[in-house]
TrEMBL record:
GO terms for molecular function: ATP binding; ATP-dependent DNA damage sensor activity; mismatched DNA binding. InterPro entries: DNA_mismatch_repair_MutS_sf (IPR036187), MutS (IPR045076), P-loop_NTPase (IPR027417). This is Uncharacterized protein. One of its GO terms (cellular component) is MutSalpha complex. PANTHER family: DNA MISMATCH REPAIR PROTEIN MSH2, DNA MISMATCH REPAIR PROTEIN MUTS FAMILY MEMBER.
Amino acid sequence: MDDTLRDLIEEIFLNKLKEHNDQLEKFKELVETTVDFEAAEHHHYVLKVDFNDELKVIKEKLDKTIREMNKEHQMVGRKLGLDTKKKLHFENKKLMDILATQRTGVFFTTRKLKELSSEFLSESEHYDDVQSSLVKEDINISDVSVRASTSYIRPKMMDKGEGHVILKNARHPCLEIQDDGSFIPIDDELIRGQNELQIITGPNMGGICDESFGIHVTELANFPEIAVKEGVIIIKQFLWDIAQTPEIESMNYNSILDHIQEVKGKYQEKIERNPWCREL
């Protein structure tokens, strides 16, 4: 073949095919790594339990339920003196409820099978909910990782009342993906008992460094789930008290800030007890 034609075919067809093939190979590896093929043989398409401890617990319950269902199936066969793997003709129907009779056999159930079936469906739905949340989280993290110029790390979390907020080379997740600009990483330290975070408000106040610090602290606050839930309630109550002030709309700027500080004083003890509110 002429070299010119060969190069033309490679450029138009082969290079694209190789590119797509490489992407499919990565997708194949992803599927092989994440999908439970043993469950897929039974038409149950789920993630492997290796990714989450909660999935392992649910999987153990599902396996136990399946074993109980098979045991019940075999028990009915033994009591009737029939082989459950062959086409059966039921003469004694007191043990089960006939659901359907077909040329290939009889579909039946028992009271225990109904209970086990309900339990299996409930745990299966729970499994689907957990794996769906994992998939969404993984997609969001993957999207951020792909966009980032450098890798992300998992923060080291301390016990309640012992931790400090120490950020080394903190970046701004939005600015760093822009092509026409750069953001110099910053270091932040809030040592318990030594430093305090003062929130300064007003027109044009707060820069990119402050914004970057706020983003990281907010992300950290989402790790202790119980503290976050409690903290959200505190914040809602705090905002509700401010909003319920009758003359709030007629106040000037300084009066509103004074009122916010006054209301904050009532919640100071709750804020100090809650790490989510305290750091935020």
